[in-house]
């Protein structure tokens, strides 16, 4: 479903050239649960931006469901971001002045999708918040806010959930609860890609890809030391 082939991303600042990704090739199958790890400056944020169609490669190709993302227009990329990719962020990114229900409905509003209330309620029920539909974000705990964010991410039935440090602001117990929700969504057939620096979070994945200096240095099962074979 996801294919990086020789992906390089170069940022230029005057005469200075920063190679954030260097000739990265990677395939993620439909229904996989993959954690992408690496220290600061490893390139994982750049990879996340490209995976999420927020940026495009300088060289090489990124194909999502067989489509070369680099060949798409800005409007086409926006359509993919809104309808085909569900984003979950560390800081939740909920709109504070509207309810949980309305936050979940937002991707459908932007996409002109009907039956919004029924679908939003089903998504909130899926993450255990059916009784919190009218709560404002300020009335919810951090874990509950992240559950709302996950409900929003799945509302358009995306091909991929892209979670960037989804438990970075949460305590250990809440982290486990959020990861269990993501695992359950994956077991139901959704592809999940985690961007994380946390080994405990990565342990929930089926596969851990580690970046360093813009290159993949390992591709393994959680807890293993060698390169994973599938």
Structure summary:
This protein is α/β, with parallel strands linked by helices and 230 residues long.
Structure write-up:
- The structure is a single chain.
- The protein has helices at residues 44-51, 74-83, 100-111, 116-126, 142-154, 172-187, 199-202, and strands at 2-13, 16-28, 33-37, 59-64, 67-68, 85-89, 160-164, 191-195, 207-212, 215-220.
- With 230 residues, the protein is of the alpha/beta class.
- It has one domain (30-56, 71-220): Rossmann fold.
- The strands form 2 sheets. The chain has a 6-stranded mixed sheet with strand order 6-7-8-3-9-10, sandwiched between helices. Strands 2-1-4-5 form a 4-stranded antiparallel sheet, covered by helices on one side.
- The two termini are 16 Å apart.
What are the key terms here?
six-stranded mixed β-sheet, alpha/beta, disordered C terminus, Rossmann fold, 32% helix, 230 residues, four-stranded antiparallel β-sheet
